[in-house]
Amino acid sequence: MKNSLIFFATIVIGLSLPAQKKVYICTDPKSQVYHYEELCKELEKCKFEIKQIKENEANDQEKRLCKLCKENQKKKDSE
After folding, report:
1. What residue segments make up the domains of the chain, in order of their start?
2. What is the mean pLDDT of each run of 10 residues along the chain (79 residues)?
């Protein structure tokens, strides 16, 4: 009974949390941005590994959204 209650609570909490968007970062220690698109022209310049992480992790690393990705997102939102 206790295990099923814990399982149910875990499911409810998991469903109530907003899904975290996946973003891409360049693992260059000097990189300060994250990208929504893996094929972003700015990200193509990365000479290090490209890694997919959650957006909140990128924010925790004090990274900001790429200007090009930001512009593309605004265009998508206005359509």
Report:
1. 20-78
2. 59 59 96 96 96 97 96 88
